[in-house]
Amino acid sequence: MLQPTLTLQDILDARLLSPVFQPIVNLSEKTIYGHESLIRGPLNTPLHTADMLFGAVTTDQQRIDLELMAAREGLDQFFKRRGKGKLFVNLSASVLVHYFLLNGEARFSALLSETRLPMSSVVIELTEHERITHLVDLLRAVEALRALGVEFALDDFGDGRSSLRLWSELRPEIVKIDRYFSKDIDTQAHKLQTFKALMHISEVFDTRLVAEGIETAEELEVIRDLGVVYAQGFFIGRPAQEPHLQLSPPAIEVLRDQQVVVYPALRQVTRGRFSADRLMISAPSARSESRNDELVEVFQAHPALHAMAVVGDDGVPLGLINRRDFMDRYAHPYHKELFGRRSCTVFMDANPIMIDKHQGIEQLTAILTSDNQRYLSDGFIITDAGRYLGLGTGEQLVRAVTEVRIEAARHANPLTFLPGNLPISEHIDRLLAAGGGFVACYCDLNHFKPYNDQYGYWRGDEMIRLVAGVISANCDPRRDFVGHVGGDDFVVLFQSEDWRERCERIVHIFNERALGMFDAQALSRGGIDAEDRHGNPSFFPLTTLTIGAASIAPGAYQRAEDVASVAAAAKRAAKHSHAGVYLMSEHPVAQALAS
C-alpha cells in the first residue's frame, strides 16, 4: 500500500533515504572494482526511486540537501556493510561549487568528514554538466578534494549534456560512457566506432573508461574485446542493498570465454559521409539578360572556368554554357557581330545536370551510369534548395566516385556488403592477439568463369550473392567471421567447434541451389560449352563450391598476411584434390607460403 502523504521535505527531515549499490567490474581481472551508490526513498511510496525524488525538488536548497544527504548515506552504509573497492557517489557540479564557495577551501573537506571510508576509496561522479557556470571554482573544488585522495568521474559522457572541453579541463580519473553507446553495440557499427574513438581520447587524457548500461551477453562480449577495462549494467549486477562480492554467473561465463566476438560489419561505410558539396567550385554566374560579349570577358578573366551557369532573378539555375562550345562558336566569322549583344541564353543548354549539395555517393554514381553523359564536358550545377551554389566538373565527379568506391571496398564488398579486405585482416589480427586457435577457410567456386561468360555478369553476380547468403546463414554470427575478398572468393574464420559440419552443409546447400541457375539443356548434359582461359572450346561441369581449411594453432602465426596465405594455399590444395571440403595438414609458415 502506497503512502502518498509523505513529501520530499518529510523524507529529508526524517533522513529516510537509503542507498543501493550497483557493481562496477574490472573486465580484464574479472573482479569487482567498486560500486555506484544509488539513492532510494522509503519503500511503497511514490518517492521511492531517484527519478521521483529529484523530480519532487521545488527549491535549490532542497536539491542541495538531497544530493548531500544521498552522498553521505551512501558513504556511511557502504562502510557499515563492509563494501570493497571504490565507491562512486553522485554530486552535481553546481552543488559541489556551491558547497565550496559557501564553506571556503579550508573547511571544504568537511563535505566528507562524516564518512569513515578512506578518501582514496571515494569517487565523485559529476552529474548535470550543462549547469557548470563557474569552471574556475569547480576546478579549485576538485583539486581540494583530490588533495585528500578523492578521485573524480564524469557521468553519462556522450548523453548530449557532457562536454569534451570539461574532460580536457577537469582531467577526471574516470569517464563513464553513456548507456546509449553500449546498447546494441554488437549490432550497430557506428557505436563500436564511437567507443574506439573515445578509447583513443582516454589514452590521450590518461583516463579510465567505464561502459555503462551493459544489459546483454552480446554487448559485454564486444566491450570486453574492445579492451574497455571497466563496465556496469544489469547483466553484470543489479542494484542491491548489500554490496556485491562477485560478478553475476552469466557475466563470469562471458569473461571466461576465450573466443573472439565478431564485430558488426561496417557496411556501406561511405553512406552519409560524402556529399556533392565537396565537389563544388565557386564560380561566377550569368543572368538571362547578360550579353555574349560580357561572357567572353568573364571567360577570358577566368581561364580555368570550364562553364558558366545562367541564373534567374530568384537564384534558380536556367541553364549552363559550356566554355569550349561557346568560345568555338563565338570565333566563327561574323558571330561576334551577330551575337555579341544578344542574350547569352542563345548558347545555353537549358537542361543541364543539376545536383543538390546534399546528394550522396549513390546519386552521384547514378549520374556516371546514366544515358546523359554531358557531365564529362559540361560538368554540372550544384544547388542548395534549388538555388545556384556553384559548379562541378566531370573529372572531379569520376575521381571522387572512384576513390570513395575503392575506400568502401576496403571495408565492405559492394556486391554482397560483406566485410572486405581491411576488416578481414583486422579480425585475423584480433584472433591472433587473443591467442586461441581457429580455422581459416577459403571458399571458391569451381568453373565460375565459364558460367559468367555463358549467362552474363548479372547472373554471375546473382550466383556470388547466393554463395554469400548460404555461407552467412550457416555460420554463427557471433563466433564465425564471413568476409568477401572479391569476385567469387570468400574467407570464413571459424571459432565454432563444429566448423567442418558447417562447411559441409554450406557446400551441399550451395551445390543444390546452384542447379536452379542453369537452363534445362545444361542440367541434362551436366555442364556447359564455353571457351577456356586460352580461348579454346571446352566442356565445363556445373558450378560447385570448394572450401579449403587450415587449422591455425595458438601461437603458430603472428601476422594476418601469413594466415591469409595459408588459407589461400588450402584453397589451392582443395581445388586440386576435387574435394568439397579439404583440411590442409598443419605445417610451418614457410612451407605454406611456398606451396
Key phrases:
595 residues; alpha/beta; 20% strand; disordered C terminus; 23 helices; 21 strands
Describe the structure.
The chain has 595 residues and is of the alpha/beta class. It has an eight-stranded mixed β-barrel with strand order 1-2-3-4-5-6-7-8, surrounded by four helices. The chain has a five-stranded mixed beta sheet with strand order 16-17-15-20-21, sandwiched between helices. Helix 9 (217-226) packs across helix 10, helix 14 (361-368) packs across helix 16 (394-411) and helix 18 crosses helix 19 (457-473). The radius of gyration is 34 Å and the shape is flat. The model is unreliable at 266-272 and 587-595 (pLDDT under 50).
**Structural class estimated from helices and strands:** alpha/beta
Distance between the termini: 78 Å
Overall pLDDT confidence: 86
Spatial extent as radius of gyration: 34 Å
Widest β-sheet, arrangement of strands:
1-2-3-4-5-6-7-8
How many runs of DSSP E, i.e. beta strands? 21
Give the % helix: 40-55%
Write the layout of secondary structure elements.
Elements: H1 8-14, E1 18-26, E2 31-40, H2 50-55, H3 60-80, E3 86-92, H4 93-107, E4 122-127, H5 135-146, E5 151-157, H6 164-170, E6 174-177, H7 179-182, H8 189-205, E7 208-211, H9 217-226, E8 230-231, H10 249-256, E9 285-287, H11 292-301, E10 307-311, E11 317-322, H12 323-330, H13 335-339, E12 354-356, H14 361-368, H15 375-378, E13 380-384, E14 387-392, H16 394-411, H17 421-434, E15 438-446, H18 448-455, H19 457-473, E16 481-486, E17 489-494, H20 499-514, H21 520-525, E18 527-531, E19 537-541, E20 544-552, H22 560-577, E21 581-584, H23 589-594
